[in-house]
Amino acid sequence: MNKKKSTGREPVDRLHLEHFIPFRLSVLSNVVSMNIARAYAREFDLSIPEWRVLAVLARYPDLSAVEVAERTAMDKVAVSRAVQSLLKARRLARTYDRGDRRRSVLRLSASGRSVYTRVAPLALEYEKKLLATLSASDRQTLDRLIAQLLTRAEQMS
Please, what is the angle between helix 48-59 and helix 110-131, to 10°? Predict the structure, then answer.
């Protein structure tokens, strides 16, 4: 019998990253974000976290930074940095909740709304071009599958 001597380096279960869905989703997200980030940074001096904060507050004004982090699943530190940068650039306005003075409330300033109204069409156009490779049926399936995976991931956390 010809047995190979173990080197201790063989994985118990082989993980092939190119087929591992969490890895593939992360790579896709990173590639898409980097493509978009170049345009946002160049044209609007805006980072991806800053854009996400603006987009969330455009849709849901009067959120706290913690609530923005919850809606975007972004790290609280990244949201805090983005909020501070947007406040400094006067793209956000901060007030305090009348019922709870400890809770700050964020909303877009006039400058923030102006940036949002210029960036949103570019973001939608990028999405349109990205999804153009899929049929309408595939886009609906993708949307449904993403929702299912998100729900399942939230249940597992």
Answer: 100
Distances (CA, A) of 13 to 9, 10, 16, 84, 118: 12, 9, 10, 44, 48
> Rounded to whole angstroms, what are the CA distances from 154 to 30, 92, 103?
21, 30, 26
- For the segment 110-119, what is each residue's pLDDT rounded down to a tens digit? 999 999 999 9
Judged by phi (left if over 0) then psi (alpha if -120 to 50, else beta), residue 10 lies in: beta
> How many CB atoms within 10 Å of residue 125?
10
Euclidean distance between CA atoms 112 and 39, whole angstroms? 17
Range 63-68 contact pairs with CB under 8 angstroms and sequence separation of 24 or more: 63/105, 63/106, 64/103, 64/104, 64/105, 64/106, 65/104, 65/106, 68/106
Measured CA distances, 119 to 26, 41, 86, 88 (Å): 23, 11, 15, 19
CA 6/CA 139 separation, integer angstroms? 47
At position 41, the amino acid (one-letter code) is A
| Tens digits of residue pLDDT in 24-47 | 999 999 999 888 888 888 889 999
